[in-house]
Amino acid sequence: MAENMEDRFNQACDYLPSLVKKLDSSTLLKFYALYKQATVGQCNIDKPSWYNMEAKSKYNAWNSLGQMAKSEAMSKYIALLNEVDAGWEDKEQEEINWDESQESGSKENEGQTKGWVNVSSMINDESQLDDNEKNIYEWAKEGKLDMLVKQLTKLKDFNINQLDENGLNCLHWACDRGHLKVVQHLIEKCGADVNVTDSDGDYGLDYAKAIEHTDLIEYLVNSGAHSSNT
Predict the structure, then answer these.
(1) Distance of CA 185 to the CA centre of its chain
(2) C-alpha Rg value of the chain to the nearest Å
(3) Whole-angstrom Cα distance, residue 147 to residue 22?
(4) What are the chain's domains?
(5) In CA terms, which of 25, 116, 131, 193 is 20 to 30 Å from 227?
(6) How far from 175 is each of 203, 214, 221, CA to CA, in Å?
């Protein structure tokens, strides 16, 4: 067992990929943020485009750590690993296949070592979820109106404008994926507020414009939707 903090941190980084399939995206983002803080320091990249969900989530996670010292980030990274897999230091390390598809030269990749795998390669694909594991946000993303309605009947007190862990609500997801019928149902039947913003201040109309879905854009505009880039 390593005694030096930095050695323990590197050991933890090397071990983490063996747990990838067992961890949810929220936990993986915490590991990502702490890793970047520990190896690079305070977030030093530009805020990603609002429609780049993955990059925005990673940016927000890292940026939220502010000026946390590298040593503290290392300590918290190790502590988090202890929470999800107590006794990991005594276990034999599994062989890891590393993702070599990193872009070289970008600020985000400075200080990156083999001890980290991209969040994008670690987060479980939503399409792999069983139907009984999907929540109302997943059904909005997939455009499955019948399943969304069924889920809503079980969630009588659900706030249709509530944001999920990614900072979007059902309407944002439906607009992002171009599901006009779902958008119409959310607004006309569920009372969704067409002008609720996501966690970054962007509207459903912004997502619709990004995918250039003209019918959806027209419907939202006629429903009184605002846009942050008009």
Answers:
(1) 26
(2) 20
(3) 26
(4) 5-92 (1.20.80.10), 136-223 (1.25.40.20)
(5) 25
(6) 9, 11, 13
- H-helix or E-strand spanning residue 219: helix 214-222
Cα–Cα–Cα angle for 135, 152, 217, rounded to 5 degrees: 85
Which residue type occupies 181? K
Q: Which of 169, 164, 137, 166 is nearest to 151 (CA)?
A: 137
Residues near 106 by beta carbon (within 8 Å), at least 6 away in sequence: 45
Half-sphere exposure of 25 (CA within 13 A, CB side): 14
The DSSP output letter for 88 is G
CB 185 within 8 A of CB 171: no
> Three-class SS string for 128-174?
HCCHHHCCHHHHHHHCCHHHHHHHHHHCCCCCCCCCCCCCCCHHHHH
> How many whole angstroms separate alpha carbon 115 and alpha carbon 221?
47
